């Protein structure tokens, strides 16, 4: 019986585990991936992590988060969580290897999964010119034509990065305004190789059956269609939560994120949610770290009665 099981080793989960350990609680962190850090691994460069003004790579920050976890000798289990149930005051976590673990409190910090566009060609050409990780795939596209879909912080930041490799870059966004930070939008609009297509939706990803070759887009105002020829396509359409592993009901918002109060408490005693999986207005590494530390603090109060 653990005091706290933390589900997910992104920034929220790692912060929760470290705070729990520092409260002398028996804590276990469970992560399905072999490399820790969650979505921190994706951005090529992070320049708004307060206290590191020179910036740090996503991979670099992930390594530091993992080192911090190891410094506190926090046990980690590499497994996929199949379900979480609650009986009286005990939570049972069932894992993909058929084992079961029990805890007095749970911190849900699994983050979110990539949202797909659901357009023809998306699944077919994934990994064959279609990607959602610029850090992983940008070097394959030196002096090539690329397109990016999306207008959030991921799309903007990764467009700026991809433009260092590409000879031409089309940025396709369905609205006339970007969702991401103004500082990023201003920077990319100054780059002559980046051609924004604002107010356009992506209709179809085309290729020769082996690799991607073009993207069919439509002007949402005029309904005029255009085929953009390219060598690679990066999709940054945001993320969705997945709470299907919970065997009991906890309150979710309209988009499926877990509702909590400011103490990260869900409506279920002993169950906390932290980071991107939680309903909140600002999803950032620093807000995830904050959520995780608060969740561990609340769980400690709950366990100590
Ligand atoms: P996001 O903020 O949810 O943006 C997703 C983008 O994809 C939006 O522009 C959205 O358009 C577009 N989109 C969604 N579904 C679409 C569809 N079916 N067809 C076409 N476009 C679609 O996601 P994100 O940029 O990945 O960021 C996720 C979270 O991480 C955010 O909270 C973000 O602020 C944070 N983040 C922060 C940083 C940073 O601070 N440096 C970097 C990366 C991410 P609409 O705008 O029209 O909805």
For the biggest sheet, the summary is: 7 strands, mixed
- The number of helical runs is 6
Total strands: the figure is 17
Q: Uncertain segments of ≥5 residues (pLDDT<50)? A: none
Which CATH class of the largest domain? Alpha Beta
CATH topology of the largest domain: FAD/NAD(P)-binding domain
Termini separation: 17 Å
Spell out the CATH superfamily of the largest domain. Answer: FAD/NAD(P)-binding domain
Radius of gyration, Cα only, in angstroms? 21 Å
Beta-strand residue percentage: 25-35%
- Estimate the mean pLDDT confidence: 96
Portion in helices: 10-25%
CATH architecture annotation name of the largest domain: 3-Layer(bba) Sandwich
Helix and strand succession? EHEHEEEEEEHEHEHEEEEEEEH
């Amino acid at each position: 019986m653990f005091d706290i099981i933390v589900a997910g080793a992104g920034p929220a989960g790692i912060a929760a585990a470290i705070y729990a350990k520092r409260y002398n609680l028996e804590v276990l962190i469970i992560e399905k991936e072999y490399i820790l850090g969650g979505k921190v691994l994706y951005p090529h460069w992070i320049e708004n992590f307060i206290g590191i003004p020179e910036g740090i790579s996503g991979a670099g920050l992930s390594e530091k988060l993992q080192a911090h976890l190891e410094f506190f000798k926090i046990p980690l289990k590499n497994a996929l969580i199949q379900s979480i149930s609650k009986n009286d005051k005990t939570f049972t976590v069932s894992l993909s290897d058929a084992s079961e673990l029990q805890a007095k409190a749970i911190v849900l910090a699994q983050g979110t999964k990539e949202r797909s566009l659901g357009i023809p060609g998306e699944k077919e050409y994934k990994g064959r010119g279609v990607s959602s990780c610029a850090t992983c795939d940008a070097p394959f596209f030196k002096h090539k034509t690329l397109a990016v879909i999306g207008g959030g912080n991921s799309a903007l930041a990764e467009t700026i990065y991809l433009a260092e490799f590409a000879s031409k870059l089309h940025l396709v966004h369905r609205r006339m305004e970007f969702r991401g930070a103004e500082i990023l939008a201003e920077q990319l609009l100054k780059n002559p190789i980046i051609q924004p297509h604002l107010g356009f939706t992506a209709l179809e990803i085309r290729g020769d059956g082996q690799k991607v070759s073009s993207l069919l887009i439509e002007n949402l105002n005029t309904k005029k269609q255009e085929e953009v020829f390219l060598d690679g396509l990066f999709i940054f359409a945001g993320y969705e939560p997945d709470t299907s592993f919970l065997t009991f009901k906890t309150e979710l918002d309209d988009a499926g994120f877990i509702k909590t109060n400011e103490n990260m408490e869900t409506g279920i005693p002993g169950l906390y949610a932290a980071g991107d999986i939680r309903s909140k207005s600002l999803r950032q590494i620093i807000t995830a770290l904050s959520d995780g530390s608060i969740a561990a603090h609340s769980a400690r109060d709950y366990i100590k009665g």
